Write a sequence for this structure.
């Protein structure tokens, strides 16, 4: 499985200069993962906006959003379904953490569509709880940056038969999936953890919170507990590639079908895969 | 300032394949920074040993140490003084944190020698205390990996006139410099923080602890406090490029000259720059 890449608009990919990139040496960069469907990048305007905000937070000079849009469209052309990862890398060949950032490189990688067994948006997933706690770093919390070793480590001991693994924050409270944000419904209130200390603020999480606010769905952002999760009426995870995945089982907890809040939010998101019968390879 | 690179033994550098590397996308890789002096890489055997141990800890397949040694020697040839960074990158083009690691790429980057104003090993440095606390992640603590955004952020607000900034651990205790390990002498005992929760186990730190053990210098590895540091008789930082830098000033604390323990350890390390009168550009 090889990615097709576009580097600063060139489909020949990067040259040897990438070897000295701050993106590679320090993970000094940000990214977004999007779904290409019917030759379009789903929610591309929203994704670019988040990408640029994260880039600013890490001191990267802003690239031209029109160039990013152009890159994304080029990668989506004649592509029925695929995953598109958009990266912005801090350029600057000087050695040392404090060396100046002299520019930003745009890197887009297109991958085959995810090969999930079935319409999981409807059937729901089996989730497990990881023993791992994410570390707390308020200076980086929420940013979708390239320092992702915690997620790599958490994905090493993936229990068989699971589609997602849930992680705790540094205090041992439920926080997110390895590649998704986490929501649950408890006592009629939609809940999701705050991201002031750790975690990534996904674009789909933002959209769900907007939907909740617009439709007067009671919602609270803030710390929860595994005990509360065990009492939830609905649990789901979300990201921009799959949309909303209802959780069917999590340790002792189980649910037969997506609950009413999950259904409502799935409808509001208009995610392409919420209507596809099967996610083709 | 451009780096000279060697990628898997090729001096043409990496090709476009680096764009899909797990090293770039997740920081899934490890590194060591070494000093080239008189066409030799100082302490190269020790550096390679640490590099391989860190690679193993992150699930990278081990590269042939002989190839690494050959790479390093090629970079050092006919080079009076330079800095050499050796990176091992997890190869694997699959998307996703849990995608298989299918190999390891060797990347060496040679940079100009550091341009420090004077023989700081003798004169000592001015250090400052950063407000930043490093996050605690026992699964990654001690490993010199490519997730270095905390160090980048800490280097953004570098107080003028300082040569190093000291960081705290997640509990607010003194831990290390942005690019060095930290030692101090208090009540006749050499002290350095433990690295079970955060921080990087530098090769020079290892060598200093070995020296201390071999010469029966009283030494304790474990948490300290800023209050204890303020009462220290000697403070120094170390890394493989500069050796040992005595701290001359740190907030209210100051010292005129390297103390006896610092001097003794400088002598034991046999670092090339401990004898150079000036670090040339």
């Amino acid at each position: 499985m090889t990615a097709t890449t576009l580097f600063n608009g060139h489909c020949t990919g990067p040259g040897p200069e990438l070897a000295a990139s701050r993106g590679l040496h320090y993970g000094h960069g940000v990214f977004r993962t999007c779904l290409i469907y019917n030759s379009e990048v789903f929610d591309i305007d929203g994704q670019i906006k988040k990408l640029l905000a994260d880039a600013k937070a890490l001191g990267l000079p802003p690239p031209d959003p029109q160039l990013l849009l152009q890159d994304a469209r080029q990668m989506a052309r004649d592509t029925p379904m695929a995953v598109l990862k958009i990266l912005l890398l801090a350029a600057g060949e000087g050695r040392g953490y404090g060396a100046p950032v002299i520019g930003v490189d745009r890197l887009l990688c297109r991958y085959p569509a995810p090969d999930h067994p079935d319409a999981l948006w409807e059937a729901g997933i089996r989730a497990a709880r990881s023993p791992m706690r994410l570390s707390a770093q308020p200076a980086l919390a929420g940013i979708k940056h390239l320092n992702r070793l915690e997620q790599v480590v958490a994905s090493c001991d993936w229990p068989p038969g699971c589609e997602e693994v849930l992680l705790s924050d540094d205090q041992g409270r439920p926080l997110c999936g390895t590649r998704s944000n986490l929501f649950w419904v408890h006592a009629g209130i939609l809940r999701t953890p705050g991201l002031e200390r750790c975690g990534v603020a996904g674009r789909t999480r933002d959209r769900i919170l907007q939907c909740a606010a617009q439709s007067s769905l009671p919602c609270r952002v803030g710390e929860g507990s595994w005990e509360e999760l065990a009492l939830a009426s609905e649990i789901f995870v979300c990201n921009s590639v799959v949309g909303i995945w209802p959780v069917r089982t999590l340790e002792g907890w189980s649910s037969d079908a997506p609950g009413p809040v999950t259904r409502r939010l799935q409808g509001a998101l208009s995610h392409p895969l919420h209507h596809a019968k099967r996610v083709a390879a």
The first helix of chain A runs from residue 22 to 26. The mean pLDDT of chain A is 94. The helical segments of chain A are 22-26, 44-57, 65-76, 120-123, 149-154, 203-214, 226-230, 260-269.
